[in-house]
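[agent] plan:
  1. take the single chain provided in the ticket
  2. run structure prediction with default settings
  3. attach C-alpha cells to the ticket
  4. add a short note for the reviewer (M.T.)
[agent] executing step 1
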Amino acid sequence: MAAKTKNNQDGETRRDFLQLTAGAFGAVGAGAVAWPFINSLNPAKDTLALSTTEVDLTPVEIGQSITVMWRGKPVFIRHRTQEEIEEAREVDTADLRDKQTDEDRVEKPEWLVLVGICTHLGCVPVGQKNTEPRGDFGGWFCPCHGSHYDTSGRIRKGPAPKNLAVPPYEFTSDTSIKIG
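[agent] step 2 finished; step 3 output follows
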C-alpha cells in the first residue's frame, strides 16, 4: 500500500504540472488572439498628430487676438495690452464664481491662451475681433445665453459655471507656443 500511495502522489504532481502548463499556454494564446483587437482601440497616428498645435506668435500685434484649432476646438490667443493685464490682475478673486487669479491662468502676462468654448452649453463666445462685443468686462461675450468673461477669460456674469478653460501649452521660444 505504501508503494501505491507514492505512485498516486507522483501522478498528482505530474497532473498538476500538466494542468499549470496547459493553463499557461491557454493564457498566452488568448492574449495573442486578443492583442490585435485591443490595439485597434488605440487612436490612429493621424489623430495623435492633431494632439498638438504649434503657433507662431510673431504676426500677432498687441491688442490683437487670433483663433487656432486644436483637437477640433477653437483656441483663443490674445496678445494683451498693459491695460488688459492690469485690469485682470486687479480683480478680487473673492468676487469670482470660479476663483482663479490671472497669474494662475497665464505663463507670460502678455499672452492669454484659452479654449474658446463657453462653459455653459458649449457655444463659441464672441470678442475675438475688435468689432465684436466683448461683454461688460472687456473679454468675451456669449450671446446665446449672456455669459460675460473678463480679460483673463474668467466668468463674471451670466449662467456659465466655470472660466474659459486654459489648454496645456508651453512657449517653445519667445515667439511661438505649442498647444497640447
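[agent] step 4 note for reviewer: The chain is about 30% helix and 25% strand.
[agent] ticket updated
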